[in-house]
Each structure stands twice: as C-alpha cells, then as structure tokens.
Amino acid sequence: MNWKPLIILVSALATVSVRADEKALIAKGKVLFMTKICFTCHQTDPAVPAPAGLALKAPTFLGEFWGAEREVALGFGGKVVKVKLDEKYFAESVKMPMAKVVKGALVPMPPPPPPITDEDIAALMAYVKSLSKPQVK
Ligand code: HEC
User: Fold this and answer.
1) Is CATH 1.10.760.10 the classification given to domain 16-131?
2) 15 CA to centre of ligand 1 in angstroms
3) CB count in 10 Å sphere of residue 99
4) Residue 107: φ, ψ to 5°
C-alpha cells in the first residue's frame, strides 16, 4: 500500500489544528490584554495612544519589537544589562515586573491584577508576539 497520500493528509490536518490552537490562544490573549489593562500602558496600534503608558514611558508594542534588544536595570535603579524581548523575559516581565526594569521608564511596571496564570501569560505572549511586524510607513 502507498502510505504517502495518507501521511500528507495527516500532516496537513495537524498543521491546520496547530494554526487553530494558535489562533484561539491569540484571541484569548487579546481579551486578557484588555481585561488585565495592559492596553492602558502598552500601545499596540499606531493610531491609538496608551495615555498611562505615555506618562510612564512604558515600552510600546509597535513595529518589529519581538526579539529586539533593550537595556534593563536589575531591579529599579540597579545594574544595567542588555536583554532580548523573548519568551522568558516576557513571562518574567509580567510575573515579576520589578526584576528587570526597562531603561528610560519612569517607574517599574505595576504587577497585573491577579489572578494571572501561566496559561494567561502564554496567551498574552502569543497575542503580543503576533503584533510584532515590520513597520509599514
Ligand atoms: C500602569 C502601566 C502598565 C500596565 C497596566 C502594564 N504595563 Fe507592562 N510595562 C509598564 C512599564 C512602565 C514598563 C517598563 C518598566 C519595566 O520594565 O518595569 C513595562 C514593561 C513591560 C514589558 C517589558 C517590555 C520591554 O519592551 O522590555 C512587558 C513584556 C510588559 N510590560 C507586559 C505587560 C502586560 C502583558 C501587561 C498586562 C498584563 C502589562 N505589561 C501592563 C507599564 C505597564
């Protein structure tokens, strides 16, 4: 028997279901970004400012920001080191905002309203990551 068509079909179905899961996760993250009030400080749309974030100089999630390097203080006012915005740093930024404070921010980020689970963080991360795109001018 020729298994090839079956293998192609199964792998195609697997890809479709992964995409659907990813989409659901991004959608959940988008809702959390609103309900956990991230949007008040982190701008995600060039046309919609985030007023609280402007006042605090919070980083924006605009352009191709995922993977970009930034300088952070180890604790507010602490030693400055370079980090990349990756999955580990994102999760830490949400769970322990005081651990690494982006240079230039006027105050450290306040902890998000609880409860915030690891699943919530995964969803927020999927959503925020999906926003990272080359800037269109
Ligand atoms: C009251 C304003 C405020 C809210 C609400 C807020 N943040 Fe922040 N956030 C900041 C500021 C200010 C910084 C930079 C200082 C720091 O690193 O602590 C920051 C930093 C970050 C960083 C590091 C970003 C980078 O470019 O290095 C991430 C990731 C992040 N926030 C995610 C979130 C998520 C997710 C939420 C919602 C659960 C959220 N923030 C809610 C103000 C806020």
Assistant:
1) yes
2) 32
3) 15
4) -140, 155
